[in-house]
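question for whoever is on the cluster today: can someone run the full assembly for these? two chains, 972 residues total. i dont have access anymore since they changed the login thing
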Amino acid sequence: MKMNQKRTLALLLFTALTFTQCKDAGENVEPDDENELITTITLKFAEKGTTTVNTFSYKDTDGDGGNAPVQFDTILLKPNTAYTLTVEMKDESKTPAEDVTEEIQEKAEEHLLIYTPAPATLLTYTYGDKDANNFNIGLKGEALTGAAGTGKLKVQLRHQPGTKNGSAVPGSDDVNLDFTLTVK
Amino acid sequence: MSFPGISTVKTKCKLFNKLVYSFLLILFSVSVFGQNSNCACFVKGVVRDKHSSQPVIGATVLIIGQNSGVFTDEKGRYELRDLCPGTYTLECRIVGYSAFRQTIDLTSGHIEDFSLQEQEIHLKDVEITAHRSDTPASQPLSTISGNELENTRGKSLAESLKGLPGVTSLQTGSSISKPVIHGLHSNRVLIMNNGVRQEGQQWGSEHAPEIDPFIATRLSVVKGAAGVRYGSDAIGGVILVEPEELPFDKPLSSELNTVGFSNGRQGVLSGTVQGGIKTLKGFGWRAQGTIKKSGNIRTPDYYLDNTGTNENNFSLAAGYRNKGFGIDLFYSRFDTKIGIFSGSHIGSVTDLLNVIKNGEPFIKSGFSYAIARPNQNVTHDLIKAETHYHFQNGNKIQWTAARQINNRNEYDLHRSRNDSIAALNHPELTFKLSTLTNDIVWDHKPIAGKLAGQVGVSTLYQYNLMSGRPLIPNFNQFNIGVFWMERLVKNSWELEAGVRYDYRKLKTYRIVSKEKLSDDFDFKNFSGTLGATKNFSGRLSARLNAGTAWRAPNVSELFSDGVHHGAAAYEKGDASLQPEMAVNTIGSVKYAGERLTFEVGGYYNFISDYIYLKPQPEPILTIRGAFPYFKYTQTDATFKGVDVSASWKFVKTTTFSSKLSYLQAYDRRNDNYLVMIPANRIDNQLKYDLPDFGNWHQTYISAGNLFVARQKRVPAESDFAPPPKAYSIWTIQAGSSIQLSNKHQLETGITVQNLFNTAYRDYLNRFRYYADEMGRNISIRFKYSFGA
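^ ran it for u. tokens below:
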């Protein structure tokens, strides 16, 4: 019986040790980043035959929530004019800012940019780049404005890993912004 | 915790009848003396403690339906006199245990027989499984055990409980399911896993309980606020997952379960081996393990891509009993990998509206067992030590210490765009929650033979570490609670009252604009319970309970700030939230006749400062477009409803049973309905029992229908799509138990769920916007038991 009690005591001691925990969650807080964050998108409209470049941006440096977006420009273009449109995307929550455009270019087979003007007569977009599977990308292209008017230009970055087929349907949005578009 | 025992029923003639039962920890012996047929029969016996063989003082013994309840005296004896010949139900109660009942036969026929000559007839061995339950006896307790539980084998915990009235589930597809009691879930439902409060990341609606139901031989649901005994969070109710008592000094026995499901081509294998040790008296052990593998789920018309699961669980238990002393050690590991339907990643509101418009997912897939991104990988380890000592004078002390480590890794659909980071294949979200709980409960010996009770203290220490995409802060949390409950039994009345005080300290750490920020919170609250049970007759009883429970806001309610991609909503927390408090009144009437049984229960749960996501007028603009903006806000809410269950054996072989759950929830402050409240439902079943055929016993076939109404009580303009239509699904079942030999038994069952392959959607499934529920599912199960 004594033996049993000793065993029990040893067991209890072992148990007590097992159940001890001492840790402070505060020591382990690390600023961590969202993998996929895009904080800034800049549309560069270079008027053909000139050196004029019009840039329009959306910028929310701390990402979703927190502070409101610091910049959301109205796109102002001339009527019946041809522009070369290039896009730049960045993650400015990190220092130094990360160039997302480059990453998208590298993973072009997973991404598709879509430009949808409303009304459709405001602007016509023509893709100027293709991925390895001969599908459009949309980082570079041509924009031809129509008659004067005001509307919206929806800019979408579709993330379509493994499913990109040239259409907008597969995948999900990484960017989905309605810029105000004024042609005058 | 449960404590089964074996009891031998023997009849000894010449007006002498001896029944020996072991009940819980108690050896409970009853002697029945039938004298003549003129109401002069009596029942007497001794109630003993199983460990110490000491008599139990102050246990209540009563004949149900006769206003004759007695308490055991200082030698554990009791005597019930002046009984007429007939069949009675004898009930024994000790505080801290659910009632134990046994039918005794005092018919005159027997007595005549007995008077002829003295002989001892061994009738049969009856295993009585009685269970410890700390629940207030006046609160309704619904249980699934035995055959009913066998029928749910292979399903998750929440799916197993769905058959109980008032219990539904909150789903993320078909693979993630959380129990909902009377419309409340997640942090408002407490799960007691083997006597320990389950601490995972319950706040998340796509975080299923990390429990293998094969551990349990009994699943119970306590409906209504039960804060006094269980502490915070028990607002909607408590789920008790209870394994069998360890087989102290018993021979080796084993059990093997295999279940196959056609949908998802799921296979489940679970085995248990247990026994005592011959050379070590008072010792018992058990080892148990489960493997589960499932592939893509099929709705009636299409497969859901990446919806497989992979689960590997095991548990080890050992215990020792010596006189009044007992110790149990328990370790369990739960390890699951769950694929999340790849079409459920919603980038923007446009994405969601497009798929709703399409009516079915854009992603098409065939069958596969492979689990790709997105997925969840969760492990939960529980180590528990429970010791108790029964003093000779009737007092008892119990100490339970448990440590839980919950590791949750969530992998998003998309890896990092940066190749070197993506190659690491790290989860985008990692939570590590570590919890230490200690509970000490003192059961005092009955005072004046009428009043029994317990006092206890519970502590919890917890820390949470998370990394990855910012979602919830890290925190340390400390909680202490003290409670006191007393129960008075007098004649056919049973009254109980209890009070509890809890104090919780929470310290959170998070990064805001690259600065470390810490916040301190103090929450404290009283809870109370008051209840009464009245036994009108052996068959009819009524109970009424008013109880309170509270819940401190959880870290996600305090600090959420971002887009919830499953819900296409921007959710923002509020650090100034106060604890919510529930006052729940629940009453029920139960009738148990030979052919007809029914239970009708009604409840009214008032929750002040109920925390919910309130839609805000202005959307939040993000780079993925504008998202509807919801803020955690408090209101006063009421949850009222009725649960009815009835079964009627209208001919000897055929039973009709019906279960109804009706619930109305309302936001009192804003005069509006609440979102995500389960729709009302009725479940009917017709069961035909076949006579025994050779060694085939308990053979039956049954057909059932579940009708779920459309949820019409929803706030206007609060959702992307209206709640799904009402649905009706059919299930057929058959089962039998085959006695292969004295020691070998095989149980088998076949079930066809969703018999007609009906396409339907449920309001409480987050995939309701774009995907149907599971189509037809045929399952076959075998349970082979060897030994005891």
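summary bc i know u wont read the tokens: Chain B touches chain A through 64 residues (CB under 8 Å). The two ends of chain B are 20 Å apart (CA to CA).
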